[in-house]
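Help needed: design a sequence for this.
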């Protein structure tokens, strides 16, 4: 990530702590276990609580479909990811993650369909957008299915499409529930999401 992109923290006391290495945190190990245990899994939905939004990857930067060499595995671009809008941090910050057109279209269309269904069933406004344009993150669970294909842990074509469902509630622009919801709200939220 680019130094100006505050997508994760190296402080274990922060909610955005990125861990000590790949799969070092319980949440990511759990997601990896689910994907290993269920090889036919095709869709993944991670619940978040910041705002009414459906997000899709990539989570660390904008997408592009013209240059496959510009990807998260290419170390030439280390330190340049996570600057939105591109170029706002000066030289070296115009990185965009390669995404196949078919994958990009499928993720965007699906996110919009989910957001539309959530609006119909809950009566609340939901947006759909690429996660990095909400706020860039590194190691996002929604990207894990794509990452597994890139590093050869899953056959190409058996990609897991990952999404995040942001389900926070606001009143007049002010968040009326905490970023992390109290447990008593989770059942209601899951019910609403299942209806969507």
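Sure. Designed sequence:
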């Amino acid at each position: 990530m680019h130094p100006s992109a505050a997508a994760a923290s190296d402080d274990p006391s922060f909610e955005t702590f990125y861990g000590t290495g790949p799969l070092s945190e319980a949440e990511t190990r759990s997601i990896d276990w689910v994907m290993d245990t269920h090889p036919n899994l095709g869709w993944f939905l991670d619940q978040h609580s910041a705002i009414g939004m459906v997000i899709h990857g990539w989570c660390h930067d904008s997408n592009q479909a013209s240059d496959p060499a510009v990807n998260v595995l290419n170390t030439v671009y280390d330190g340049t990811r996570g600057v939105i809008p591109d170029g706002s941090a000066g030289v070296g910050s115009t990185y965009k993650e390669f995404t196949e057109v078919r994958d990009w279209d499928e993720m965007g269309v699906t996110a919009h369909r989910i957001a539309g269904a959530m609006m119909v069933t809950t009566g609340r406004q939901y947006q759909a957008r690429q996660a990095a344009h909400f706020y860039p993150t590194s190691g996002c669970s929604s990207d894990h299915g794509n990452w597994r294909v890139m590093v050869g842990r899953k056959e190409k074509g058996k990609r897991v499409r990952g999404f995040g469902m942001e389900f926070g509630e606001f009143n007049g622009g002010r968040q009326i529930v905490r970023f992390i919801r109290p447990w008593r709200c989770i059942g209601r939220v899951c019910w609403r999401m299942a209806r969507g």
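The chain has a mean pLDDT of 77.
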